[in-house]
Amino acid sequence: MRGSFTLRYALLTLVLAIFAYLYGLDSRFAPKNGDEYPYMHIVRMTADSGSWLPLQSEMDGIKNTKPPLIFWQGIASTHWASQWSLENLRWPSVLYTALTALLLFLSVRRFSGKTQTGILAALVWLSFFATYRYGRPFLTDPPEVFWLSLPFFALLYWGKSAFESILLFPVLAGLSLGFALFAKSFAYIVPAAFALGLYYWHWRKWSIPQTLIRDLYKLILLGIIAIGIFSLWFFLDPNPEAVWREFVLGENAGKFSARSSSYLLDLVRGGDSIWMLALTTLANAGLFIFVLIATLLQCWRERRFMSTEESLLLLLIGAFFLVFSLPSQRSARYLLPVMPAFATLIAMHWDRLPLWGFRIALVLQAIVLALLLWLGVNLQISTLMGESGAWHYNPLHWFLMGLSLLLVIAGLIRREQCKAFALMACFLVYGALTSSLAPLEGQLGRFSVETIERVQSKDVWIPCDYRAKDEEYRLLLPGAQLHGYLAKDASDIEGLTKTYPIVAVHAPIGAAPALCDSCQLLGQRMEMRARHSDEEIKEMLLGKIAEHLFVVEYLVSTPAANSVASPGLLNVKDVCR
């Protein structure tokens, strides 16, 4: 392996990638999407019912929010919720992500004839922030990306034999796409079939008659198979009318309604415009966004000499982008299945890419690391922290921060290693991000065993700022009966202690809560705040981080436990629902 990415760099980067994706897999603060909480809730409720279907939920309007494959996956990985942990819920997602990276490596190595390019494609895709954010948590994206990618990269791997396959490839592609639909949505058959149609059209040298005669039946066959697999949901579910109403009409058809004034205005302006979709799709690359932009510019300059594989990859990207620009709700998350294609283009152009994109990536990494270092130092030396428990880092955290900064600086100085070090530093930044919040994963951010035992089977009210947020608290207070109140009221200690028998309240670090004489403190832990005012952000930038970034959460038993009105609290709408 010659060029700027040697075998030694490849092996070292692979080790760093494995470290980044496995480190902190069970972290409550891992980059993710809020959908993880509702998905966890549906898995737990369905597992408690003892049946695979119908899906169960206590949330209004959120039950059949996704096909059952992701929930069945969660039920299996947690052994019917008997081994309930984030790690058990998430490891299948990491496995799917690893299989997609392996698929990418094998197909790119095959058609490029270079092992280096195959390894690069897989590692670049893993370095994208969107891959890291959506490829580890308990979400629908990892299986969706894998099953959707499989037919396209199979065509690139086998080439002529796959394109000319009369029955075998269409059937296998239909099965693969069927699993993708069963994991995410039947709507994905539209961009997938459209992209495959463009693939066949390109293969027939843009001859419409030849494509219609020789390949149209293949698209129809694989479409029937894929939709057939998705339709099993209606046959297996005891309440198919609920699936139609909640998923088909509510979850999918509703995405075509105008978001603001009109469909056409939404298309060209605002947060759901086609321009924002293009920008956020590029932003899926995270720290490598300017490397991706440089690659696309390179593709444009070399368009007259573009290889067949490059053309097919760009057709795949274009097909998905065009289809997902049609719904009024446009999200770069829908374009996650084309990010492996973007990574492949970067790998194919790697040695010819200018350095400016990689240098910008290194500068962005340096900024992130500097902020994390500044945050960590301020928290470590904060005098306020001592009153609520010491914020203490393992020495390995400082080693990781130092190694990351040295690698970034070396990449900026050494021209020959700039590209390789920029790629390696992406994974170190992800590790540093997880390590910076590691103290909250330990005793500092958790209730004691004694506290957990004291609230077993008791009704506890906790702050909720997102639907099914109580699923996170079930990891902190296993065995308690949890109910949610508005998170914005968490600091109203007097009002909460007069209303709820056992309640979690928030107080600033360093300021003991004013509790009533008959109130009893059951336990406490530190929690990170999610929303801040402009004034608080300014003070945080001046060094007052602990005061505003974190709060102390106290679990309090109150006289309301003996109130005659307290049974009626159970009939009040749960904010987490």
Automatic annotation (TrEMBL):
Its main location: membrane. It is found in: Cell membrane. It is a multi-pass membrane protein. InterPro entries: ArnT-like_N, LipidA_mod_glycosyltrf_83. Pfam families: PMT. One of its GO terms (molecular function) is mannosyltransferase activity. GO terms for biological process: lipopolysaccharide biosynthetic process; protein O-linked glycosylation. Keywords: Cell membrane, Glycosyltransferase, Membrane, Transferase, Transmembrane, Transmembrane helix. Residues 34-237 form the ArnT-like N-terminal domain. The chain crosses the membrane at residues 7-25, 89-106, 118-135, 141-159, 166-182, 188-204, 216-236, 274-300, 312-328, 334-350, 357-376, 396-413, 420-440. It comes from the Bacteria. One of its GO terms (cellular component) is plasma membrane. This is Glycosyl transferase. It comes from Polynucleobacter tropicus. The lineage of its organism: Bacteria, Pseudomonadati, Pseudomonadota, Betaproteobacteria, Burkholderiales.
